[in-house]
Specification:
The protein has 89 residues and is mainly alpha-helical. The chain has four helices and no strands.
């Protein structure tokens, strides 16, 4: 059940680069830069969720992911675990 590789030249990453450019531009009002930061965070959260799913499909454990995130397996599972699956220990 392999995923399609992440295309960093695609539209989503181009949009992320644009958001980061806005965040770094001191000529843009701070409120607009905050909005760009929030949009970038949402994109990265979505990407992180996809990568967690990929890691689990590739055999990573919650212990492995806890180590990667620098926290406990329980914390990672509560953040990224599926509420639809009960056998993902």
């Amino acid at each position: 059940m392999g995923r399609v590789p992440i295309d960093t030249s695609g539209e989503s990453f181009t949009a992320l680069r644009s958001l980061l450019d806005q965040v770094a531009d001191n000529e843009i009002p701070a409120a607009t830069r905050i909005a760009a930061t929030i949009a970038a965070q949402q994109f990265l959260e979505s990407l992180t969720r996809r990568l967690v799913d990929d890691a689990l499909e590739q055999g990573a454990t919650w212990d492995d992911l806890g180590h990667a995130f620098g926290t406990s397996p329980t914390n990672v599972k509560s953040r990224f675990g599926s509420y639809r699956k009960y056998d993902d220990d």
